Amino acid sequence: MSGQLRIRWAIAPKIAPRPLVNCNRCGGIRPYRCSGRFRVNANGKRIDAWLIYRCTDCDNSWNRTIFERCNRRDIEPALLAALESNDPSLVRRHAFDAVALRSRIGRIEEFPDVTIRKELLDGRPECATALWLALRLDAATPLRLDRLLAGELGISRSRLQVWEERRLLTVVSDGARALRRPARGGMAIRIDLSGEADRDAIVSAACG
Ligand SMILES: [Zn+2]
Exposed e or buried b for every residue in 18-38, given b needs 16+ CB within 10 A? Predict the structure, then answer.
């Protein structure tokens, strides 16, 4: 469609979820932050691996089990090497897996902070009348889609709501209420701006 601007937003959550641990040194529940390091214990053929967290108050450590008493033959050498070298992308994959962390510890803190890299894929900003925003996420975020869009486009959430009701905004391949749910990778949002007086400002914000 002519007048449509296609933009990719590559979104990287900034702060990993923090387990709420009963810290025996502080004597109470404290949030623990990811240290960015694994601990691997190779005892003969059996291997254990943990991701290390530290108390935000006293630095006491808490070990999150990645696997326990695994047979060495069942572990890919590349995975073992990544664990032993604290490979940052492997740390990130585990650290941001809020579902697995919650199932392990029960209570966690989550943070909506993200960094966003915006890349124009197709179209000319000066004659854009519609936006197509494709979201990429390198890890899960609790940030709601409407908060993300409102913050990045410089508009109110109530205006987004009105656009959605008038079908000027559609979240492609996601059902109703997608605006109120966390942003996810693979989402695409289409916004018709043809009737908006401040179109140029919105387009410029969308392009970053
Ligand atoms: Zn503590």
Answer: bbebebeeeeeebbbbbbeeb
